């Protein structure tokens, strides 16, 4: 009997608890509903267009208090706040044509200062991929850039309208963006992923076009200094000074400097780059402006070894050139050049060809000067003119140890019983490259009736390219210095090449805006080189 009373008591307690909870919830809901109209007063009418709880009236509130009528359905509209609230929405429309992606300075500032702009494009552009041997992406020999299967050798590039040529190693018709200017001074860049833009002057824009725009000097005088540190003794220093507006005509300029250096993350050597930029802007009333730009780059680097898949798997990712082990470098050069075998201990690990890949060292030295004068002018209300005159001078030393050429001063090499090598079965092979470009571009933009935008332009360039290959003997007990000043007459000339090229290009296109957001582009481009 006591157990039965206990069960009834527990059931009664649960019912009482549920009833109390429901009553408290009802009272709380009623007080919240009553507070809303009484607190707002006449302001409720002003805000009735914003889906306010207008169904909650004073009569329904009193009914809930008396519990004489069934509970009405609670409004699902938002509650009003006693304080006024404001929401600002802003939009910005970016003009684009084709599959084009534009990267602003604000986005670029999210990446490590001094990073290769192509590295940033790869992180922000669908279908783009970038890889490099170094963290900053400055190694033109070791970096690759792909956009939907096309490499940087097949993609056009311009800087403020200056044709930049191929963006690969030993650029024979231009200069890499990392050496033409300081990355911090780029205002924006864009990537056209389809067929190369017709209005982009380039001889190899089969796979798209990259467009870089330099920043203008600031209206207010000032400066900026930044410092970056990283692993392997890496550091980068950047400084810029802006003059601000100097006179009533709006003249202004800036000058900047950057210094980047880091040790190689494997092997011996380092990477170093010294850069300087300057830009002057002179407004031409309210109809245009003239700007002058100058860029300087001095780049030096010890290269990383190009490895096969087998070398990577068997020797490890940290495997590289044999420096500083000079005797081992001579021995492996002997096996590669004079035998079809491999050194003891590497049977079944590396092939004879792969043994030949392991040389003493390799390096590259590059120096660049770029200058231009640009003029933008509104000829008429609907006709604009853009003119660019530019010059570009490059020089470079590219090369490394050649395991298949013998330094002749020490006789024919031979393999000694102890595994050492007499003579020097290798030599330094160094390419001396030089380039001089002079050219101009001219564009006209016409805002025609019926939402048509007609653009036309031409490009002329004269390019002189020199590529001489010379050989330098290595020492009997020590190798060459890759930072030596390799002057004419200090080595044996293997071959010499000199090319002089004239480039003519013309384009005409019409961009018809059918309806807002729908554009039809039609045109053609012609190219002649002699």
Automatic annotation (TrEMBL):
<dbReference type="Pfam" id="PF07715">
    <property type="entry name" value="Plug"/>
</dbReference>
<keyword id="KW-0813">Transport</keyword>
<dbReference type="InterPro" id="IPR012910">
    <property type="entry name" value="Plug_dom"/>
</dbReference>
<keyword id="KW-0812">Transmembrane</keyword>
<dbReference type="InterPro" id="IPR037066">
    <property type="entry name" value="Plug_dom_sf"/>
</dbReference>
<dbReference type="InterPro" id="IPR036942">
    <property type="entry name" value="Beta-barrel_TonB_sf"/>
</dbReference>
<keyword id="KW-0998">Cell outer membrane</keyword>
<dbReference type="GO" id="GO:0015344">
    <property type="term" value="F:siderophore uptake transmembrane transporter activity"/>
</dbReference>
<keyword id="KW-0675">Receptor</keyword>
<keyword id="KW-0408">Iron</keyword>
<keyword id="KW-0410">Iron transport</keyword>
<feature type="signal peptide">
    <location>
        <begin position="1"/>
        <end position="34"/>
    </location>
</feature>
<dbReference type="InterPro" id="IPR039426">
    <property type="entry name" value="TonB-dep_rcpt-like"/>
</dbReference>
<protein>
    <submittedName>
        <fullName>TonB-dependent receptor</fullName>
    </submittedName>
</protein>
<dbReference type="GO" id="GO:0009279">
    <property type="term" value="C:cell outer membrane"/>
</dbReference>
<keyword id="KW-1134">Transmembrane beta strand</keyword>
<feature type="domain" description="TonB-dependent receptor plug">
    <location>
        <begin position="101"/>
        <end position="208"/>
    </location>
</feature>
<feature type="compositionally biased region" description="Low complexity">
    <location>
        <begin position="50"/>
        <end position="62"/>
    </location>
</feature>
<feature type="compositionally biased region" description="Low complexity">
    <location>
        <begin position="33"/>
        <end position="43"/>
    </location>
</feature>
<feature type="region of interest" description="Disordered">
    <location>
        <begin position="33"/>
        <end position="93"/>
    </location>
</feature>
<keyword id="KW-0406">Ion transport</keyword>
<keyword id="KW-0472">Membrane</keyword>
<keyword id="KW-0732">Signal</keyword>
